[in-house]
Design goal:
This protein has five helices and no strands. It is mainly α. The longest helix is centred in the middle third of the chain and has 25 residues. It has one domain. Helix 4 runs antiparallel to helix 5.
């Protein structure tokens, strides 16, 4: 399901599958960010994508998931991750 483009229908079906116990519950706000990143990187240079993906997956998302597992996940955490990635992409573009 994560490979499908994000939509209201996709979110509804995922919630239905979680509610019925077919899929495990997870923090959907955080788990939608990798798909958002791929959409953002579609028109960016390949070198920028090669830097942005590990930054998101191995630094930002890993830390956000650890925090979410130990305490309540603030509603703005996904916006903060997107902002950080956007700033990093803007910086890379400026560096070029």
């Amino acid at each position: 399901m994560d490979e499908l483009p994000p939509s209201r229908n996709q979110r509804y079906i995922r919630q239905l599958l979680v509610h019925t116990g077919i899929l495990d519950e997870r923090n959907e706000d955080l788990e939608r960010i990798p798909g958002w990143l791929e959409h953002e990187l579609a028109d960016k240079p390949h070198a920028h994508a090669n830097l942005a993906r590990p930054f998101l997956h191995w630094f930002l998302l890993r830390r956000a998931r650890q925090r979410a597992a130990t305490r309540h996940h603030p509603a703005s955490a996904d916006r903060d991750l997107r902002r950080r990635v956007s700033v990093a992409l803007d910086f890379l573009a400026w560096m070029d």
